Amino acid sequence: MSHVTTHVLDSSVGRPASGIGVELQDHEGRTLATGVTDADGRVAILGPDVLEPGAYRLVFATASYFAATGTPTFYPRVTLDFTVVDGAHYHVPLLLSPFAYSTYRGS
């Protein structure tokens, strides 16, 4: 399992958001891994098994997801910064709609 995983739920339609590109970046913006959400809205393998403690970022390419359904969106990209402090697994979900989003540290 990757040290970081994610999933995206489209709360505007009440289902997983498939086909969203996701990048894992380090604190300098270098891409460490990329993935695309599957039919369940998940990216199960995103980067290495272990990340050093520090600052990281997930970038979700939401513009193309909404464009595919003809839905205007205020957020063409969602960027989530988070800190890795230990060897635990980090699950970082995104709850998405065209004009709002929220996140939390999952399990």
Which residue ranges are poorly predicted, with pLDDT under 50 across at least 5 consecutive positions?
none
Q: Taking all residues together, what is the mean pLDDT? A: 94
Strand elements, count: 10
CATH class equals Mainly Beta
Distance between the termini: 13 Å
The share of residues in extended strands comes to: over 45%
Q: What structural class should be given to the helix and strand makeup?
A: mainly beta
Query: What's the order of the H and E elements?
Result: EEEEEEHEEEE
**Can you name the CATH architecture?**
Sandwich
CATH superfamily membership, which one? Answer: Transthyretin/hydroxyisourate hydrolase domain
Which shape, going by the Cα principal axes? globular
Helix content: under 10%
Total of helices: 1
Radius of gyration from CA coordinates: 13 Å
CATH third-tier fold name: Immunoglobulin-like
Largest β-sheet summary:
6 strands, mixed
Overall number of structural domains: 1
Pfam family, one: Transthyretin
Keywords: Hydrolase, Purine metabolism
Subunit structure: Homotetramer.
GO molecular function: hydrolase activity
List the helices and strands and how they pair.
Layout (H helix, E strand, L loop, with lengths): L3 E7 L4 E2 L4 E6 L4 E6 L5 E5 L7 E8 H6 L10 E7 L5 E2 L2 E4 L2 E4 L4
Parallel strand pairs: 1-8, 1-9
Antiparallel strand pairs: 1-2, 1-5, 3-4, 3-6, 6-7, 9-10
Keywords: Hydrolase, Purine metabolism
Organism: Frondihabitans sucicola
Family: Belongs to the transthyretin family. 5-hydroxyisourate hydrolase subfamily.
